Amino acid sequence: MVPILAISSWEFSGLIKIKHWATKALYVSALMTAAYFLNQTPFLLIPLLVITLLWWIINSYWIISFPRHTRFWNSYTATRLVNGFFFFVPLVVALSALHQIDSSLVLLLLALIWSADSGAYFVGRAIGKNKLL
């Protein structure tokens, strides 16, 4: 799980326009430290997921009202950093918790995601307004 978190958060740091490699390394280290700490304290899983849910409700509002609230995404680096935190850390902690219950559940979850993604691609390609290549 650690290499996946490190690689994906490094790539995400480039996506949110962190340019200097030391700043990227600090961000990746902070995410990995937070994920490790929260993974070692299972009683914080539910509060973490509740806070994450609230954060993504706010993000959903920003997406629905897209043209008006782009300044939150574009202007504030802190917003992008927090988005990364509330994406990667709960993901790793939840996958670790799922793996502790039964490792086959992680594979089942991944198969479900892959199926939904592939199905959406083919449906979008067949009946979508904008044809994909």
TrEMBL record:
Coiled coil: none annotated. This is Phosphatidate cytidylyltransferase. The lineage of its organism: unclassified sequences, metagenomes, ecological metagenomes. The chain crosses the membrane at residues 21-38, 44-64, 76-98, 104-123. Keywords: Membrane, Transmembrane, Transmembrane helix.
